[in-house]
């Protein structure tokens, strides 16, 4: 029975974003791992001051390949919990037969789920309005506030920004934007995969960058599969759902769902 959790962070941040969830799950007796994406494994201050030159070339395949290697090196199939792009990586990794169960929180959309909401388009506009898909991009405090934490007081937004936000590869956002036009997209998921491990999709009702309607559309894509897929929406939650006030309710729901899955203690 699996008692190992691999937490997968999203874009713009490092594994530090999982500190509250890691403490919560450790107290429940789980072994918790939170690997960094490639070129995200230095202190935040260093990543801001001098991001790796290789970061600009980092794409979905490089990130997924790194997590596949990590998961294959474990002594048991882990529970996968991801946020934002990390939620998308969870969906793809489960589809590839990795993990005993998966939770995708405010997940970026797989190929076939089209962002239609204005807040999602606005949140990503600064990243996509360029002719340089292979480059490194940074978020301003205001951009972070709008996309991640628009309901939080200004002081909390600033503190979260200083502690967590780092430059990011622009390439993954372009891969997401053109995925519908790319049959070989690395962001593709077989929504009907009958052998996929159980999956829970979690949405924040006030999320700007990944609106709840987009998560519901993602959930609906799995309607033809016999593999277990569940959905939970939390009112009043933004994209910073894993760290904003009330994160404990989300963590408790996720852990309770995980515990009910076959093969999970």
Describe this structure in words.
- With 265 residues, the chain is α/β, with parallel strands linked by helices.
- The chain has one domain (4-259): 3-Layer(aba) Sandwich (Rossmann fold), CATH 3.40.50.1820.
- 37% of the residues lie in helices and 13% in strands.
- It has helices at residues 19-27, 44-49, 60-72, 85-95, 118-128, 141-148, 154-164, 171-177, 212-221, 247-259, and strands at residues 4-8, 31-33, 79-83, 101-105, 136-137, 168-169, 199-204, 229-234.
- The strands form two sheets. It has a six-stranded parallel beta sheet, sandwiched between helices.
- The protein starts with a strand and ends in a 6-residue tail after the last helix.
- The model has no long low-confidence stretch (mean pLDDT 94).
Q: Main beta sheet: strand number and arrangement?
A: 6 strands, parallel
| Average pLDDT, all residues | 94
The CATH C-level name is Alpha Beta
Helical content class: 25-40%
Q: Provide the CATH architecture.
A: 3-Layer(aba) Sandwich
**Separation, N- and C-terminal Cα atoms:** 5 Å
Strand content: 5-15%
Order of helices and strands: EHEHHEHEHEHHEHEHEH
How many domains in all? 1
Can you count the beta strands? Answer: 8
Q: Roughly how many Å is the radius of gyration?
A: 17 Å
Taken from the alpha-carbon principal axes, the silhouette is: globular
Classify the secondary structure makeup into a structural class: alpha/beta
Q: Number of helical segments? A: 10
């Amino acid at each position: 029975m699996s008692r190992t959790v691999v937490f997968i962070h999203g874009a713009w941040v490092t594994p530090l974003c999982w500190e509250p969830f890691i403490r919560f799950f450790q107290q429940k007796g789980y072994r918790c791992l939170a690997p960094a994406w490639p070129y995200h494994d230095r202190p935040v201050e260093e990543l801001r001051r001098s991001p790796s030159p290789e970061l600009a070339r980092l794409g979905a395949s490089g990130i997924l390949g790194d997590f596949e290697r990590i998961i294959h090196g474990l002594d048991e199939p882990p529970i996968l919990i991801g946020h934002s792009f990390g939620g998308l990586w969870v969906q793809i990794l489960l589809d590839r037969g990795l993990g005993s169960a998966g939770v995708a929180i405010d997940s970026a959309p797989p190929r076939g789920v089209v962002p239609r909401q204005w807040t999602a388009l606005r949140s990503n506009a600064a990243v996509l309005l360029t002719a340089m898909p292979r480059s490194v991009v940074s978020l301003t405090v205001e951009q972070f506030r709008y996309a991640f934490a628009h309901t939080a007081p200004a002081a909390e937004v600033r503190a979260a920004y200083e502690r967590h936000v780092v430059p990011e590869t622009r390439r993954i956002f372009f891969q997401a934007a053109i995925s519908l036009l790319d049959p070989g997209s690395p962001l593709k998921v077989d929504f009907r995969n009958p052998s996929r491990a159980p999956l829970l999709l979690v949405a924040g009702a006030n999320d700007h960058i990944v609106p709840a309607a987009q998560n519901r559309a993602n959930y609906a894509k799995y309607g033809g599969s016999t593999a277990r897929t569940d959905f939970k929406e939390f009112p009043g939650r933004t994209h910073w759902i894993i760290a904003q006030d009330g994160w404990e309710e989300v963590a408790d729901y996720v852990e309770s769902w995980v515990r009910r899955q076959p093969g999970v203690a």
